[in-house]
């Protein structure tokens, strides 16, 4: 920017649950609001990469319990994330934000393939890059992919939007009324105490590569913008 300091570049992880507004499919009002809040941060100069989950459509593990082959079910899960990407792309463009979708499973008609150097170029030009289809590999989660994409595209922080909670607690706040919210913890704390922030693969990857993460609640108005701008909301997790 003008002061010569490098722009803040962050990776925003949005769960599919958020997009569904609590049920299967898309809640357009929710996606529109998220897109507007991202747009504010982008106009303030934040470079934003996004990984979107797909839990509002399919989760491979659940389909597998219902009798499907796990790997095939996981591919269905990955395809679901792409629908969320296209919805978010649409509402971002409506909000005046330039976007590109890149998918880990090639589908040239709807998105670019995942090309890291090209993604970085988009970010430098102020375009929001939305990564779809997870890692393109069964048995992974979009949380793990969020960490991987953040590392490969040089993001300084992963900001993880959560539904129904506003950060990380010392025990499950949905079950324990005395649960205390933590302002800061380490990845080892999260792993050892099984705090359920995200899966162990993603936590270990953050720890091993020294990635900073902020977990915040999606519900509060303006929270997405705040998290993208680097404000200290929710919980900070570090090595
Ligand atoms: N998935 C996968 N590999 C990946 C990312 C996702 O197989 O690299 C599948 C997996 O079945 C998962 C589904 O896609 O359950 C949706 O992703 P996720 O559950 O991470 O979405 P979220 O919980 O964030 O909505």
Automatic annotation (TrEMBL):
Activity control note: Inhibited by UTP.
Keyword terms of this UniProt record: ATP-binding, Cytoplasm, Kinase, Nucleotide-binding, Pyrimidine biosynthesis, Transferase
Gene Ontology CC annotations of this record: cytoplasm
Top-level class of the enzyme under EC nomenclature: transferase
Residue stretches in coiled coil: none
EC number annotated for this UniProt entry: 2.7.4.22
Pfam family for this entry, one: AA_kinase
DNA repair is among the record's keywords: no
Major subcellular location class: cytoplasm
Chain ranges of the Aspartate/glutamate/uridylate kinase domain: 19-216
Record GO terms (molecular function): ATP binding; UMP kinase activity
Biological process per Gene Ontology, one example term: 'de novo' CTP biosynthetic process
Binding residues for UMP: 54, 74, 135-142
Function (record text): Catalyzes the reversible phosphorylation of UMP to UDP.
Family, as annotated: Belongs to the UMP kinase family.
Self-association state and partner proteins as the record states: Homohexamer.
Name under which the protein is recorded: Uridylate kinase
Species per Swiss-Prot/TrEMBL record: Promicromonospora sukumoe
Lineage: Bacteria, Bacillati, Actinomycetota, Actinomycetes, Micrococcales
Gene label: pyrH
């Amino acid at each position: 920017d003008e002061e010569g300091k490098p722009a803040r570049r962050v990776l925003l992880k949005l769960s599919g649950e958020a997009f569904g507004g609590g049920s299967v499919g898309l809640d357009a009002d929710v996606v529109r609001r998220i897109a507007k809040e991202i747009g504010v941060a982008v106009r303030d100069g934040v470079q934003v990469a996004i990984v979107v989950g797909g839990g509002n459509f399919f989760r491979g593990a659940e389909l597998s319990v219902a009798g499907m082959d796990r790997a095939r079910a996981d591919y269905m899960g990955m395809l679901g994330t792409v629908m969320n990407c296209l919805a978010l792309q649409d509402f971002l463009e409506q909000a005046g934000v330039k976007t590109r979708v890149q998918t880990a499973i090639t589908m040239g008609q709807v998105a670019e393939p995942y090309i890291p150097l090209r993604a970085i170029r988009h970010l430098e030009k102020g375009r929001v890059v939305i990564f779809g289809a997870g890692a393109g590999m069964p048995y992974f989660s979009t949380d793990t992919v969020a960490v991987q994409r953040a590392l490969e595209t040089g993001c300084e922080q992963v900001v993880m939007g959560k539904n129904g909670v506003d950060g990380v607690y010392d025990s499950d706040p949905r079950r324990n009324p005395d649960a205390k919210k933590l302002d800061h913890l380490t990845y080892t704390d999260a792993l050892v105490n099984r705090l359920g922030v995200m899966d162990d693969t993603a936590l270990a990857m953050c720890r091993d590569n020294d990635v900073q993460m902020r977990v915040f609640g999606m519900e509060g108005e303006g929270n997405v913008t705040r998290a993208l701008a680097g404000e200290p909301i929710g919980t900070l997790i570090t090595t």
